[in-house]
Write a structure and sequence with these properties.
This protein is α+β, with helices and mostly antiparallel strands. Helix content is 50%, strand content 15%. The protein has a 3-stranded antiparallel sheet with strand order 1-3-2. The radius of gyration is 16 Å and the shape is globular. The model has no long low-confidence stretch (mean pLDDT 91).
Length: 134
């Protein structure tokens, strides 16, 4: 039985696992959408939602606690300003996991992990950011 077993090990050492998850959470909060495998997405979601909840509470101690996970200062400032305001009336559930199928190389179950209520880029901006073919 697996009662009260804490988290998924993801076939990694504890230091590798925590570094990977912190990098994934930082990327998620910076870009507001990442593509990864389903088990990694489920683990990263836990850390990302905790960081946003700490931002909603505010205060220096909560900034320091969130900085353990979010290692980029600009992203941390974004969490404690922009994301804090966006989710101030939401009681939880700041992320969404959408399964997108299987990866071609090893048939791993893939998912998109994204923040809910994220702002989509307007169509003109999307076309402007695409590289031009010559």
């Amino acid at each position: 039985m697996r009662h009260r077993v804490g988290q998924r090990k993801l076939n990694r050492t504890s230091s590798h696992r925590m570094a990977m998850l912190c990098n994934m959470v930082t990327s998620l909060l910076e870009h507001e959408r990442i593509v990864t495998t389903v088990p990694k997405a489920k683990e990263a979601r836990r850390l990302a939602e905790r960081a946003i909840t700490l931002a909603k509470r505010g205060g220096l101690s909560n900034i320091r606690l969130a900085a353990r996970t979010v290692r980029d200062r600009k992203v941390l400032q974004k969490v404690f300003s922009e994301l804090k305001e966006r989710y101030e009336n939401r009681p939880g559930g700041y992320t969404r996991i959408m399964q997108v199928g299987f990866r071609r190389g090893d048939a791993a179950d893939m998912a998109i992990l994204e923040l809910v209520d994220r702002k989509e880029k307007p169509k003109a901006e999307k076309e402007a950011t695409k590289p031009e073919k010559e």
